[in-house]
From TrEMBL:
Source organism of the structure: Cathartes aura
InterPro entries named in the record: C2_dom (IPR000008), C2_domain_sf (IPR035892), PH-like_dom_sf (IPR011993), PH_domain (IPR001849), Ras_GTPase (IPR039360), RASA3_PH (IPR037774), RasGAP_CS (IPR023152), RasGAP_dom (IPR001936)
UniProt GO molecular function: GTPase activator activity; zinc ion binding
Protein name: Ras GTPase-activating protein 3
Zinc keyword on record: yes
GO-annotated biological processes: intracellular signal transduction; negative regulation of Ras protein signal transduction
Length: 712
């Protein structure tokens, strides 16, 4: 006698993504408490003894639709009974099907466990066929009893959020209120700033705000507004006006910039740091420079040289990566630089330190220190590699800080002596050139900075642009100079410019094919009315540098071209496409040059829903803030202690915004309540909307039962 059944694994939804990838598969097993009594075997025509589905690559919503067959028989060694008695049936009822979900991994640590579900046969025997959705559960320890002292203890804080997202029109009032935050005067009276005031942690507010503003292209104006406000408050609080005090705390400004860099700068980190980080993790060169921690057989000088080479290489790739810095980050750095320079005019270095405190201290240094947190490595590095990365991170952070007494930044004497390698002006100059580039490009209002920033200069050969109808279009050597305002050339360095091209007039910068003038290393700067400046650089490296930096500073120009001619217009036609009219549109798509704008997968409605949930959660604080506005409006004396935590620059404007927020949150709360009532009436337990294991559904049913019983 045998019991026969099959299990069909259909599909999964919303599996977790592990280290940036999800290649799931499922295993199906039949387990019971007494394997001596019952024998479990798979039918002979099913060859996969592991009972494992195929791996579904690159998806967290896999569709398997695979069937596994099982039978439960009595082994011949049991006895000669030909049927199951009551005891046998009890044993079968104690058995269960277990389905485990795994993420296939090629790493040495093995595949990652994603979750499991257990189905008792006793439950399944009540129906010949059963199909339902289930929530995956954590791994069972097999009912193994452990004493509390066996495993130690762990203190854990877990935050669980569950948001239902409506269609876009539901969020219009709240979303519009948030998006106009940058235009509110003062910005402390805006909805976005108020969210930062009422949330327990600034990070809570920063994450959905940044994603929402990025999605709607409003992140730069918003961060500019709150950064300006923070600088003003810093001036009021610190009479010494120390510029080192700005942007150093965990303010809403710093948290929003951190979050923006994480989202927009992930690709930037990949192309800049990942190749060297991978090498450091794989090669395992000894780099310990603390004499106390040296291992047997290691040489201190060799270790110092290994570390110096790593620092030099990482420093070089960072300071040469300005052209790859995402535009949105450049725009934010421009705002920080300008705001700090205006407020602290007596400090010439503040325009650099305001930017370096983010790009080095809060972006590159943490990514080097913990590459797994920035998706540069799949796992946390081993102890030796982690120590190497710590030493590199400390040095890079200090190099980027541009502080005057850098050796004093190190508590350890061995770090101070190691830093002597880098105590040269060329490192400071490289940092300043890098900061100049990433904080001066991509903005429409270039001339808002008092002094233009020199980005690059040098001799090149140019061909006459043909501004005169008659005359030779010959080649001449000229001194070229690029600032964040204009691109100019003159006869020699220091002379008056012979030609000036405003940055906003650069419509494209592309290579020029060698056949045009039989000259190598040429490129073209295309301007309005199809005027083209042809230039020859000294070598291919210089040509690429000029093309990259010119493209970088002009990439946000509204009238940038999408097509161009890769060859010149000579003898009455374009050499590339043979078109005869000199105003013929280009025949080749522009390269664009740089991966500066990375598309982000952001759902604006989801982020607005998250912000609504936060406002709803902190409603008591919103009401307390309303009271504080009323108190400030009526009474202008010393502030009550319970209101002192709020930043309220304009009580009347802040009160108006608070009123709109509370009204909008109340409306959405009513919609959610109605949705829940309708949803629970129409759906059943085990459907995709309410999988088995959905605690919220069980809680709701229990609450409704209690309400019904009470009313009866």
């Amino acid at each position: 006698v045998c019991i026969f059944f099959f299990s069909r694994v259909l599909e999964c939804q919303g599996l977790p993504i592990v280290n940036g990838q999800c290649d799931p598969y499922a295993t199906v097993t039949l387990a019971g408490p007494s394997r001596q009594v019952l024998h479990i075997q798979e039918l002979p025509f099913y060859e996969d003894e592991a009972k494992k589905t195929k791996v579904k690559k690159k998806t967290n919503n896999p569709h398997f639709d695979e069937v596994f067959y099982f039978e439960v028989t009595r082994p011949s060694s049991y006895n000669k009974k030909s049927h199951f008695d009551i005891e046998d049936v009890d044993e079968v009822d104690k058995m269960e099907i277990r389905v485990d979900l795994w993420n296939a991994s090629n790493l040495k640590f093995g595949d990652e466990f994603l979750g499991e579900l257990r189905l008792p046969l006793k439950f399944l025997r009540q129906s010949s066929s059963y199909e339902a959705w289930y929530f995956l559960q954590p791994r069972d320890n097999g009912n193994k009893s452990l004493k509390p002292d066996d495993l130690g203890s762990l203190r854990l804080n877990v935050v669980y959020t569950e948001d239902h997202v409506f269609s876009s029109d539901y969020y219009s009032p709240l979303r519009d209120l948030l998006l106009k935050s940058a235009d509110v005067e003062p910005v402390s009276a805006s909805a976005a700033h108020i969210l930062g005031e009422v949330c327990r942690e600034k990070q809570e507010a920063a994450i959905p705000l940044v994603r929402l503003f990025l999605h709607y292209g409003r992140i730069v104006p918003f961060i500019s507004a709150i950064a300006n406000a923070e600088v003003k408050r810093t001036q009021k609080l610190f009479t010494s006006r120390d510029p080192n005090t700005i942007f150093r705390g965990n303010s809403l400004t710093s948290k929003c910039i951190d979050e923006t860099m994480k989202l927009a700068g992930m690709h930037y980190l990949q192309v800049t740091l990942k190749p060297i980080i991978d090498e450091i993790c794989q090669v395992h060169k000894p780099c310990e420079i603390d004499p106390v921690k040296l291992k047997d057989g290691e040489n201190l000088e060799n270790n110092r040289e290994n570390l110096r080479q790593y620092v030099d290489r990482i420093f070089t790739v960072i300071t040469k990566s300005g052209v790859s810095c995402p535009t949105v980050m450049c725009d934010i750095f421009f705002s920080l630089r300008e705001s700090a320079a205006k407020r602290f005019q007596g400090d010439l270095d503040v325009r650099y330190t305001a930017v370096s405190s983010f790009i080095f201290l809060r972006f590159f240094a943490p990514a080097i220190l913990s590459p797994n947190l920035f998706q540069l490595t799949p796992h946390h590095p081993d102890p030796q590699t982690s120590r190497t990365l710590t030493l590199i991170s400390k040095t890079i952070q200090t190099l980027g800080s541009l502080s005057k007494s850098k050796s004093a930044n190190f508590k350890e004497s061995y770090m101070a002596s190691f830093y002597d390698y880098f105590n040269e002006q060329k490192y400071a100059d490289a940092v300043k050139n890098f900061l100049d580039l990433i904080s001066s490009s991509g903005r429409k209002d270039h001339k808002s900075i008092e002094q233009p920033i020199l980005l690059k200069e040098g001799f090149m050969i140019k061909r006459a642009q043909g501004r005169k109808r008659f005359g030779m279009k010959n080649f001449k050597k000229r001194w070229f100079r690029l600032t964040n305002h204009e691109f100019t050339y003159q006869k020699s360095k220091g002379d008056h410019p012979l030609c000036s091209i405003p940055i906003e007039n650069i419509l494209a910068v592309e290579r020029l094919e060698e056949e045009s003038f039989k000259m190598k290393n040429m490129f073209q700067v295309i301007q309005p009315e199809r005027r083209v400046l042809y230039i020859q650089a000294n070598n291919c490296v210089e040509a690429k540098d000029w093309i990259d930096i010119l493209t970088k500073v002009s990439q946000c120009n509204k009238k940038r071209l999408t097509v161009y001619h890769p060859s010149a217009y000579l003898n009455g036609h374009w050499l590339c496409c043979k078109a005869t009219a000199d105003n013929t549109p280009g025949c080749t798509p522009c390269t664009g040059g740089l991966p500066a704008n990375i598309q982000l997968d952001i759902d604006g409605d989801r982020e607005t829903e998250r912000i609504y949930s936060l406002f709803n959660l902190y409603m008591p604080k919103l009401e307390k803030m309303q009271e504080a506005c009323g108190s400030k409006s009526v009474y202008d004396g010393p502030e009550e202690e319970e209101y002192s935590t709020f930043i309220i620059d304009d009580p009347k404007e802040t009160y108006k915004t608070l009123k709109l927020i509370i009204e909008g949150v109340g409306t959405l709360e009513q919609e959610h309540a109605q949705y829940k009532r309708d949803k629970f009436k129409k759906t059943k337990y085990g459907s995709q909307e309410h999988p088995i294991g959905d605690k919220s559904f069980q809680t709701y049913i229990r609450q409704q039962s209690e309400i019904s019983a009470h009313s009866i």
